[in-house]
Amino acid sequence: MKSIYILTLLSFFVIVINLSSCDQSIDNLYTEKSRIQFKYFKEDTVTQGQATVYRRTYFDRTTLSFGMSDDEVQEDTAKIVVEFLGDVSNKDRTYRVRINPDSTTAKEGVHYKPFSSTQTFRAGRRKDTLSIVVLRKDLGTSFINPVDYRLTLDMEATEDFNLGMKDGLYTHLYMNNYLVKPKWWDGVGSLMFYHPKKWKILISFNEKWANKEKEPFNFNNGGREYFEALRNYLEREPTFDDETGARIYIDRLVEQNN
Questions:
Q1: Do 27 and 19 contact (CB within 8 A), yes or no?
Q2: What 3 state SS string does 5-18 have?
Q3: Superkingdom of the source (predicted)?
Q4: What does the DSSP 8-state code read for residue 113?
Q5: Helix (H, G, I), strand (E, B), or coil: what is residue 235?
Q6: pLDDT (tens digit, 9 = 90+) per residue, 41-55?
Q7: Which member of 98, 140, 232, 242 lies 3.0 to 4.6 Å from 147 by CB, making a disulfide possible if both were Cys?
Q8: Which residue segments constitute the domains of the chain, with CATH numbers given?
Q9: Three-class SS state of 32
């Protein structure tokens, strides 16, 4: 009986010591420098039956496209979100990014303006943005052979920050000058084949058509009047593909005789 009592007492002390060690490790988790990274996932709430769950989506890129921009717009700013693991600081800190030459196809001064490898993470924030000015002039406009230029960035440690999670230590910036087909297009049979000029005409009818993720009038056949208006417009107003010179109709491209 006495030996059982002693074993129980020893077990109690072991548990107390382990708990103390765990508490200490948690308390000291961010006593070192904060850990910097590119934002690489987002969380959304999704309703499943009567329950609401969180869904995490991972990504490793930002895309800046001039496809919807007016012709006079010759530059735009891409904003890449940067975050850290740790405590918010009451003073500005610096982080550093490096262009990865093996994965980069964009050219500095041609497709984007030069930017400093050393950036400021402003005080009082958990997230900040790395701003890169993208230049339109030399981005291809081809619909038939679309080209994306890529700028790949790697995060580097500094005096203010250690490195964060592995998947957040790099990111890609894609740049283009064409209108990528929206995700919902192929699911709308009345629109027939995709052409960026057809989509732009839809947007001119109603700006809600600019939604890239989902069709804005997909209930009660609400888009029917727009599809018919698009068909009539293309019949009435000659509209041509800039590369081939073919005339665009709702259901076909027609080559023009010289």
A1: no
A2: HHHHHHHHHHHHHH
A3: Bacteria
A4: -
A5: helix
A6: 998 877 777 788 888
A7: 140
A8: 36-45+55-176 (2.60.40.2030), 185-254 (no CATH)
A9: coil
Q: How far apart are CA 38 and CA 127, in angstroms?
A: 9
* pLDDT of the residue at 180: 87
Q: Which residue has the tokens 């005789």?
A: 257
The reported pTM is: 0.77
- Distance separating alpha carbons of residues 173 and 99, to the nearest angstrom: 11
Tokens of 135: 């230049």
CB 207 within 8 A of CB 221: no
Residue 215 tokens, joined: 């069709």
pLDDT for 50? 78
pLDDT of the residue at 127: 97
Q: For the chain, which ranges sit under pLDDT 70?
A: 1-31, 220, 258
pLDDT for 193 equals: 95
Question: Cα separation of 183 and 211, whole Å?
Answer: 9
CB 134 within 8 A of CB 111: yes
Tokens coding 234:
């293309």
The owner of tokens 């804005």 is 216
Strands 161-163 vs 34-38: parallel, antiparallel or unpaired: parallel
Neighbours of 214 (CB within 10 A): 10
Q: What are phi and psi of 183, to 5 degrees?
A: -60, -30
What is the structure's pLDDT at 49?
A: 75
Whole-number Å distance between alpha carbons of 66 and 72: 11
Could you give the CA distance from residue 163 to residue 34 in angstroms, rounded to a whole number?
8
Instruction: Collect all residues with Cβ–Cβ distance below 8 Å to 244 and sequence separation of at least 6.
Output: 144, 253, 255
- Report the interhelical angle of 224-236 vs 196-205 (nearest 10°): 120
Secondary structure letter of residue 246 according to DSSP: P
> Helix, strand or coil for residue 197?
helix
